[in-house]
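Dear colleagues,

As part of the handover before I leave the project, I'm documenting each prediction I ran so the next person doesn't have to rerun anything. This entry is a single chain, and its sequence is reproduced below.
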Amino acid sequence: MRAPLIAVLSALTGLIASANGGAANAGPAALHPGDSVTLADLYGFLSPLPQPGDWITVRSTGGGVASVVTTGFGVETVAGKQTLWIETRVDSQPVSGLGSMQAGDIAQPIVLKTYVGGDAFGAFGAQYDVVASVAGIGDRSFRLSDRTAGYPTLSSGAAPAPTYSLADGMPFALSTGTVMAVEPKDLVIGGTTVHATHIVVSFQGVSVAEGATVPPSIVEVWQSPDVPLGTVASRARYLGIDRQTALVAFGRGDYRSEITTSLDALRSQSVGQ
């Protein structure tokens, strides 16, 4: 049973990123009509670097599927060293118009906690070396991977060192588009007025394997330094599917991990078995 579950969780790792304290801004300093910008930098615009305790909850829809993803940032002492982690909780939701889908068809929430190297969190597109990853389902948690020598791991055998980025699940994150419009726009999130900037970017078609081409697309984002990670909402059409995201809640400095068992404790449990 565990092997299929691990495969599902591994696939989820690439789908979760679709998501500040007073740190320096992590994206472009300014955007104007006619400027060029990559998709990853667009989502990093006006986004101060994440701080431990920051969190966001985002609702995403596309292709008849909806999910609510909470992303939180934190730090934990692992083997005597302060170690950063990024945690995501994925809740699937029913969408109207799907016919026979029932509440019982909705998957149980999955929490994935990724411990990463480095002394501070980076920009939206930053690549982190993965120290370990832990999954939580219900009241159970277990390691999916652990690169520390001397500990058993589910990812045994020779393999390249894994990396993690919040932009991993973004199609063509490094493709470059042209800014078409930039305008201020206030939005209300959970009763709080957020001062945002609405940006519209046109992306050309992208050539992929065997001569296939992904059609051109228009991407709209609403970015604000008032919220962790900067993105308040987004709208785009990728691969013929309309996709939208909307920030539904956020906080700074008060995120608490849903996986309460420390990595050191999980390692000790494995050694004792």
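The chain has three helices and 15 strands. The chain has a mean pLDDT of 80.

All the best with the project,
I.
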